[in-house]
């Protein structure tokens, strides 16, 4: 795993500066360029700045970042089950600037899949995808897990190609039974699902805390980042990628229908409803390269 590399460092920093200038006082303007709102003043000095979620700083705007979710509306996203024409009518909750996928089932303490009783079932809305397709991009979001939660960020998604299967940044708590499947941990958090492991479990924050996932894709080169650390990189179509693909479930002719799985030049961003999990998202943003 490699630490942040220049020149991407400025673009990848999670949140904003934690310490405002010494002369900041209680003047919010002095906390720029983060455009943070300083906390209550003590002894004439600001406490650490805290950025409002689902917003872009001046620096991010200058770099070309765009919000994919503003914290309250459904713009930019449509649902698979809605025929890609509208946002799901159920199964996704928007509350206090947090987007949460709700379950229709749960994983029992014994690791079994169990359908929720009707009076507890709030899920079933299906996965959501961006309206727009992307080719070269940096995608970033915060995610918050619950016990045995499972979701994923899929990219280069095209519902008309290979049954809608595509590359996936795994979002997963280790208590989910899927964590022990696959090869060498390639179904654990931040991995290229069922293909290439990230070995990033130690970077994952405790349940209930926010983590930051990022996917960088430029040409054939792809990187997975977790909490500011690059945990995986590969070349789509390269030897390591193709070797991993050959051992994955995607190699089946029933899935790899066009013979070019994972090589689609552009596609949507897809956030998965795994049906058995509660996972929250915020600060969903993208920068086209």
Secondary-structure blueprint:
Elements: H1 9-12, E1 37-38, E2 49-50, H2 58-63, E3 65-67, E4 77-79, E5 92-95, E6 98-101, E7 105-107, E8 113-115, E9 128-130, E10 137-144, E11 150-157, E12 167-172, E13 210-218, E14 221-226, E15 229-235, H3 239-246, E16 268-271, E17 279-288
Antiparallel strand pairs: 1-2, 3-17, 4-9, 5-6, 6-17, 7-8, 9-16, 10-13, 10-17, 11-12, 11-16, 13-14, 14-15
Model description:
This protein is mainly beta and about 290 residues long. The protein has a single domain (about 50-289), classed as Exo-inulinase, domain 1 (Jelly Rolls), CATH 2.60.120. Helix content is about 5%, strand content about 30%. It has 3 helices and 17 strands. The protein has helices spanning about 10, 60-65, 240-245, and strands spanning about 35-40, 50, 65, 75-80, 90-95, 100, 105, 115, 130, 135-145, 150-155, 165-170, 210-220, 220-225, 230-235, 270, 280-289. Strands 3, 5, 6, 10, 13, 14, 15 and 17 form an 8-stranded antiparallel beta sheet that branches. A 5-stranded antiparallel beta sheet has the order 4-9-16-11-12, with no helix packed on it. The longest helix is centred in the last third of the chain and has 8 residues, at about 240-245.
């Amino acid at each position: 795993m490699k630490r942040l590399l220049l020149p991407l460092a400025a673009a990848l920093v999670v949140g904003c500066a934690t310490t405002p200038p010494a002369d900041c006082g209680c003047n919010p303007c002095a906390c720029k360029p983060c455009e943070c709102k300083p906390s209550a003043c003590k002894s004439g000095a600001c406490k650490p700045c805290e950025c409002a979620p689902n917003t872009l700083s001046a620096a991010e705007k200058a770099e070309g970042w765009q919000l994919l979710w503003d914290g309250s509306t459904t713009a930019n996203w449509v649902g698979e089950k809605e025929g890609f024409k509208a946002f799901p009518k159920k199964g996704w909750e928007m509350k206090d600037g947090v987007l949460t996928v709700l379950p229709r089932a749960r994983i029992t303490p014994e690791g079994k899949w169990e359908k929720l009783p009707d009076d507890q079932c709030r899920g079933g809305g299906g996965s959501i995808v961006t309206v727009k397709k992307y080719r070269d991009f940096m995608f970033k979001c915060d995610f918050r897990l619950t016990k045995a939660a499972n979701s994923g960020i899929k990219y280069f998604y095209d519902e008309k190609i290979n049954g809608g299967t595509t590359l996936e940044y795994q979002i997963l708590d280790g208590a989910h039974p899927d964590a022990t499947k696959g090869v060498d941990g390639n179904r654990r958090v931040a991995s290229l699902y069922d293909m290439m492991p990230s070995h990033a479990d130690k970077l994952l924050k405790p349940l209930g805390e926010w983590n930051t996932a990022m996917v960088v894709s430029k040409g054939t080169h792809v990187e997975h980042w977790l909490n500011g650390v690059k945990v995986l990189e590969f070349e789509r179509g390269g030897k390591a990628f193709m070797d991993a693909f050959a051992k994955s479930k995607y190699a089946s002719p029933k899935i790899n229908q066009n013979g070019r799985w994972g090589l689609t030049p552009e596609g949507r961003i897809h956030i998965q409803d795994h049906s058995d999990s509660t996972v929250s998202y915020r600060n969903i943003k993208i920068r086209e390269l």
